[in-house]
Design brief:
270 residues, mainly alpha, globular
Length: 270
């Protein structure tokens, strides 16, 4: 608990300073570093299963995505779709150069999945930060809202689950997660969304409640999804780089689904 508390205080301090007090390029640099480390952890987990993935290629391509967003590199109108096609093509070309075709489908599909799941999904946080639409709040405030709602869900699930948890949620995926903890995390996310009215006064309570419910559910699905990956790879934590918290993947798992969904929500409905 002490290690978890100290790590959390340090990370929260870094997040607040990076989001609200430093220029965009520093925020992008930190986000790119998180993506690179997250990809490294993901591919390292997969390698423990003996699957011959394309780890260096996946990490290099993955860190290029947030950089391209920052420099607004969009040569075509449907750039994301063109990128996916090109990525799939390159992976197959790499597979053609291998001497063995064993686990070819796993190598291609898991590398492709890792890039999309970690790099593409998390990179939407940069798009949120760079929003300059005058009809929307500042991008930094929107990022702060996203982190507050998502991570309060993590905190609530841990505090309520460790104190009142009696009924297992999905024990085959995560034996320590409970239904009580999931409910606590959901309530904490909703509360976090409502108190955000203090720095997002232009956002109606309807949207705050809707986002609190939506992001609260998605944050827990993201947490469970990463637990499923770790369980399949026979690992408790993605890494031990963060004392008491685990690795980078353990840190951002609840954000991997909430971030792109929040971006599309504010773009389409706000």
């Amino acid at each position: 608990m002490i290690k978890r508390f100290i790590s959390s205080v340090i990370l929260i301090s870094i997040a607040v300073i990076t989001i609200f007090f430093l220029p965009d390029w520093v925020f992008v640099l930190v986000s790119t570093l998180i993506i690179g480390l997250g990809l490294y952890e993901f591919f390292s987990l997969v390698q423990k299963k003996g699957i011959p993935i394309y780890k260096p290629f996946g990490i290099i391509v993955g860190i290029c995505i947030p950089i391209s967003i920052y420099f607004r590199f969009e040569p075509t109108e449907k750039w994301e779709l063109a990128f996916m096609v090109a990525l799939c093509l390159l992976l197959f070309l790499l597979q053609f150069m291998r001497r063995s075709s064993i686990d070819a489908l796993s190598a291609v599909s898991i590398t492709f999945f890792g890039i999309l799941y970690i790099s593409w999904f998390f990179s939407f946080i940069i798009k949120i930060r760079l929003i300059t639409d005058i009809t929307l709040p500042e991008g930094s405030k929107l990022v702060g809202f996203l982190l507050l709602v998502s991570k309060l869900g993590d905190i609530g699930a841990y505090l309520i689950g460790s104190r009142f948890g009696r009924h297992f949620l999905i024990p085959r995926i995560s034996p320590k997660k409970s239904i009580e903890g999931a409910m606590g995390g959901f309530i904490f996310s909703l509360i976090g969304s409502l108190i955000s009215k203090t720095f997002l006064p232009s956002m109606s309570y309807f949207h705050l409640i809707t986002l609190g419910i939506l992001l609260g559910i998605l944050a827990q699905i993201g947490d469970l999804s990463e637990s499923l990956i770790k369980r399949d790879c026979s690992s408790k934590d993605s890494n031990t780089i963060l004392p008491g918290l685990g690795g980078i993947l353990d840190l951002i798992d609840s954000l991997l689904f909430t971030t792109p969904v929040f971006y599309f929500y504010i773009r389409m409905l706000l």
